[in-house]
Amino acid sequence: MTISRQLAREAREWTYEQLPADVIHEAKRRLIDMLACVIGGYDSPPSQVIQKLIRQVGGPAESTVCGSGERTSAMNAALANGVMLRFTEAMDRSIEGPNGVTSHGHPGEVIPCILAVGERQHATGKDVIAAIVLGYQLMNRLSYAMGGTVAVSRFGWKHEIRAGVILPLIVGKLLGLTEQEMVHAVGISGSFTGELGILDHGSEVVPMARELRIPYAAYQAIFTALMAQNGFEGPDRVFEGHHGFAEVMVGGKIDLDRLTRRDADFNIMYTTTKAYPVNGKLQGQTEALLRLVADHGLTPERIARVKITTSPRVVEHMGDPGTHRYPETKETADQSAYYAAAVAIVDGSVRLALDQFTPERLRDPGLRSVIDRIEVVANPEWRNDKAPTEVEVTTHEGTTYRHRVEHPKGHVLNPMTDAELEDKFRGMSSRFMSEEQMTRIFHAVHGLERSNDIGELTRLLVFAG
Fold it and tell me: How many CA within 13 A on the CB side of residue 263?
């Protein structure tokens, strides 16, 4: 039996009833977290470009664009809402198990696609919860099989190459595709997938196109699933075949048995929530600097030098002075160890409202002055994603303050409470929504299994005039 057929069979057999209560609860938490990001990115430049384009090209009134309430095709809605989410850089991250040392990307980005297709199909709340858990399960498992995000990057790809072969299964589940139709959908989409590493490389300026990595794959996945439903055929052996996914994308370095082996647990439980809208590997240094600033009354004028000791991966990906010391784009700024540190020092906060990442703020002389005093160094022994962060701040008076963070707030081993997660939602949404509207969204998500139509939730996400 081919790889794609085994995965298609698993997807078709997946049910809400097999999910334990704690997994259902975590799926709701993931939904609240990702909706916060969708709303937070509503007025971003890439979102406005995509929304304008959607209005130009039109489409059937199947699904809702968050914020505006525009009704468009499920493909367009998944694209628009996905771009909003990705812009914020506040989406979740996964590791392999509670003590995992390998990062597995951002599975929460499947949620805009699930909501768009679910709304098109008038899916129930239970259908959507099951699809979310399945999306995390298969996206993460493919990453496990490939060795994680860093392993994939060695071949020049971003880890979102997973979406092109996994999202057709999730979409197909919601559309009610047959097993063979799912196989065709995966085959078609998988044959035309691939996100180049230049979209987020440590030695390159990160462009707006970064925001399309999973959203564009979602658009394609919906289209190819509909093609398969209407009789279009794709290769059955898209994973293991000659010049297929395994050979071309990762040079054969993939454990196909691991990919098809059904898990005994639910890996959605190993998800990290970001407390700050910066790269996940910068959460620790942000938390450490904010603690030092608050505890010791540190101001930019007092600080002579800042030394951040971190993993080689952070230095490679976020510490290149040529591209990341003085970031030119928002997309580079939220990946910059220098910029994130300077914002924490100058403002005493890194806000979820994203107002610290505007073009004007990127050119702020005050921030640049602090950046000039920041050194980012690697501890060669910290070679995995379990690495801590150490921050050392030396003042002009000669005093040195130090703080180390092992597991920043939101990590699997230091999780946010439900109340803290809702506070994050407020931090990203309050400039658009009243407390009353946010409360209605919380109630809808917490009672999602009682909903007969996911449209009841998506209608609550409209706030623009």
Answer: 23
